[in-house]
Amino acid sequence: xxxxxxxxxxxxxxxxxxxxxxxxxxxxxxxxxxxxxxxxxxxxxxxxxxxxxxxxxxxxxxxxxxxxxxxxxxxxxxxxxxxxxxxxxxxxxxxxxxxxxxxxxxxxxxxxxxxxxxxxxxxxxxxxxxxxxxxxxxxxxxxxxxxxxxxxxxxxxxxxxxxxxxxxxxxxxxxxxxxxxxxxxxxxxxxxxxxxxxxxxxxxxxxxxxxxxxxxxxxxxxxxxxxxxxxxxxxxxxxxxxxxxxxxxxxxxxxxxxxxxxxxxxxxxxxxxxxxxxxxxxxxxxxxxxxxxxxxxxxxxxxxxx
Amino acid sequence: xxxxxxxxxxxxxxxxxxxxxxxxxxxxxxxxxxxxxxxxxxxxxxxxxxxxxxxxxxxxxxxxxxxxxxxxxxxxxxxxxxxxxxxxxxxxxxxxxxxxxxxxxxxxxxxxxxxxxxxxxxxxxxxxxxxxxxxxxxxxxxxxxxxxxxxxxxxxxxxxxxxxxxxxxxxxxxxxxxxxxxxxxxxxxxxxxxxxxxxxxxxxxxxxxxxxxxxxxxxxxxxxxxxxxxxxxxxxxxxxxxxxxxxxxxxxxxxxxxxxxxxxxxxxxxxxxxxxxxxxxxxxxxxxxxxxxxx
Lengths: 306, 295
Prior knowledge:
Order of helices and strands of chain A: HHHHHHHHHHHHH
Radius of gyration of chain A: 24 Å
Number of strands of chain A: 0
Largest interface: A-B, 47 and 45 residues
CATH class of chain B: Mainly Alpha
CATH topology of the domain at 87-299 in chain A: MetI-like fold
Oligomer: heterodimer
Number of helices of chain A: 13
Low-confidence stretches of chain B: none
Structural class of chain A: mainly alpha
CATH topology of chain B: MetI-like fold
Structural class of chain B: mainly alpha
Order of helices and strands of chain B: HHHHHHHHHHH
CATH architecture of chain B: Orthogonal Bundle
CATH architecture of the domain at 87-299 in chain A: Orthogonal Bundle
Strand content of chain B: under 5%
Largest sheet of chain B: none
Helix content of chain A: over 70%
Number of helices of chain B: 11
Distance between the termini of chain A: 10 Å
Radius of gyration of chain B: 23 Å
Distance between the termini of chain B: 51 Å
Helix content of chain B: over 70%
Number of strands of chain B: 0
């Protein structure tokens, strides 16, 4: 187990090293002069030179990478070109807001998804199953930003019961959290249903039924519990993707998280911020996946001895 | 001449070609058949959208801006009085083109990479797989956004972004299939008969990997239509006055406080198209690869 753990964590660091190279090359890959793009066409030659020097773009590539990496390890992600403040300070409060939104979305969608999955999986061939499967298929195909707009219209414009933007209070989180969790709820329903169907075929279920256990106990204690492993994996994998997907939701609801920050920074050509956000979001994704793999290995001995 | 059993079979149309086997399984899935019919309609609309559209897509009419749906304008009009139905109809061509173009290139390039990576193995395989790990390390849309941020906004760059971030998916699937098939008995037989590596790869291994590629092809098209709509919605994809669905939704955003129809129909178009390709993918998977259909 320990060996697997170390191997998995080392390989994640390897991936992150390569990711950091990609994120580092980001500014350098922009065609033309990124500094020119950042300061604008009318800026004087001196301004251009100053910014170039400030970003360290006048040094050799390897040196630049070294300086950048050293900074990151010391918690310095650079300085926002637009505000002149450290990128870390800019990101931190927005990051908290995005994580909060993601956690709320994930909570409701996982609970609902599991309930729907079990409901649908224990009623195969009946209307409950058709209902569940239809919702699942629809939920996975619906564009989140569209659902967001429709919800704004219904609850914000027509019924006037919920705020449609910002993050002032818990009420403002309802619509974005609902929107963000839609596809997740659909995915969880689908996986719960299929893995429950899988585990209900097992011998121990027949044994449990033969023992005369109540159907509810058979399903929840024996069937559902065993299907949980694969569901947990799907949840973990989607959590990382959710942070990426937050870009669209935050745009729709003008939510002040890192997703909308990324879009506005691209628009304003604040590339130092963009670079830091790309690194941060992918670090997230990579380490959540490691975490999921480890949990999975703990739950499933077959994998760790491979 | 006496008829053989095979000839009888051939006459009654019972001969089992790979396609007939596939078709028999595919037909059984009602949702798949409905999706296939809808797919044909989509392609038809995409080809003949300019003939079908009742108005020109850039036909301004300032006397009737933001009109709700009516007999004259089925989907209503936009902020310039353009007919939304015509615009959504012609958006089909854009979304399908982006989807098919990007995914066809991805499928070909990705399959080649996966085929060689799995067959050659060794350091080549290690490099390719590490590279694909790096691409996998970016959560979904973020990589596409980063690529468009580098290349600049526009539909061509959206296509490039989709290609880059979907290549590892195909490469991995085909690589996995190649690894499985590489040491199978029929490949060994082919090798012992003196078949060249190229023949083994393209005549013997590639057809074996094809079912998974076809399934992924359909699912990837819905994914890439969604990505392109998302990027356009964020202002990084299609530019005005292109009637791209994501861009239409992005324009509709500021009008959502007064009218619903503008946001309603482009979104519905994305939803139905993505749904169609997802269902088609599911049905193809059940028909082609029974082992995978449980997921």
